[in-house]
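SAMPLE LOG
Freezer: B-3
Tube label: C17
Construct: single chain, 402 aa
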Amino acid sequence: MLGTTFEIEPFFFSSSTNWIPSRYQEDAKAGYGDHITVTLPFICTMRKSGTRPESISSVGSVTSQKFAPPMLEVLEIHTQAPLELTHEILLQDLLAIHMVRTRDSSTIISYHPISNLQKTSARRLQSLVQRTGNNVYWSKLFKKSRDPTFVFLTILWYALYAWDETFEALYWHINKLESAVLVTDIINLTRELYKVQAYLLHYQRLLQDFRKSVEFVRNTPNPAMDCDKDRDNSADLLVREVDNLLSELSRLEGFGTQQSDRLKKCTWLAFATVNIEDSRAMKRLTEASMRDSAAMKQISYLTMVFLPASLIASVFGMNVVEINPGTRETLSHYAEATVTLTVLTAWLVIAMQTESSFWPRGSPWWRRLVWPIYFVAGLRHRPTDKQQRRGSNVTMTGLDLV
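STRUCTURE (predicted):
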C-alpha cells in the first residue's frame, strides 16, 4: 500500500467530522470500478462499571424494589449526548466508510472520531472484517462472488447488531419505568419517560437514515462486475443479502414504534394516577368542608334560638323615657340616629366601590361621592308606566302605517 494514492471527495471528511448522514457514488467507470461513501451515525451500548447484565429473574422482581430515575436533575434534553440507563449507557457512534471498488482489488478507508468512550475504533473494525472471513456463511458467500460490496455489507451488519443491543437495553429500562409507575406516583417519573421518548424519536430518525444507506448499496451496483461472467448470480446474491438486512431493519423499526407507544401509554398512566390521587384528596376536602358546614349550621340555629332574647335584652337595656322613666332620650331619637347612621354607612360603602350601577364606568371620585343626587335625578326623569305604554302604542301605529 505504500505509495498508493486515492482521489477522495472532500465531502467525505466534512460529513464525517460533522456527523452528517450521507451516501453517494463517484468516479464510476464501467468495467473498471467506482468509489462509494456511506456516513452513518448509529447507537451502541456501553455497560456501566460494577453492573451485571439483566436477567429475567432480576427484572421480574423490580416491582418490589425502589426505583430511582437517573439523571432527573437534567433540565435540557440533548438527544445526541449519551443516554444513561439503569445498567448501560447509550452512545452515538459513527460509521464513515469510503470504499474503492476496482476490478482487481478493493480498499476500505474509514474515519473514526477521537473519543474517550468505548466507540468503534479502526483496529476493532479491522478485526471484525477479518473475523468475517472465518465465518462459515460469509466465507461461502465470498467464494460465490468476487464483488467487494459484500464486505461493505458485513460492516453494515455490525451497525445493525449495535442497534439490536441498543433496543434490548431500552426494553429493560422501559420495563423498569413501567413497573415504577405502577407501584408509585412520583411525578418525576414523567420527566424520565419524556426524556427517553425524545431519545427514542431521535433513534427512529437514525434508523431511517440506516435504511436509506442500505437501499443505496442495493441500488448502486459495482461497475467492475459488468465484465464478470458471474455478474447475474452475484447481483442476485447481493439483492438477497440486502433484503435480509432490510428485513432486520423493519423488525427494529417496528420494535422502536412499539416502545414509543409503551412510553406514551406509561406517561398517560402516570398522569392518570396523579389525577386519581388529586380527586381523592379533593373528595376528602369536600367531605371535611361539608362536616364543617353542618357544624356552622348547628351554631347558626343555636344563635337564632338566643337572638330574640338578645334583642329583648338590648331593647330593655335602652335608656329611653318610654322604658326607663327619668331619662332624657326617647324612641324617636333612637330611630333618628339609627336611620341617619345607616344611610351614611350605605352612602360611604357605595361611594368607595370602584364599579357600581349608580354611576358610569370610569367616573371620577367626586362623581361617586355625589351619587345620590344623580340617582334621584334619574328617578325623576324616568318615564312612568303609562308613558311607556303610550310610546309603544305610537310606535306600533307608525309601523302599521308603513
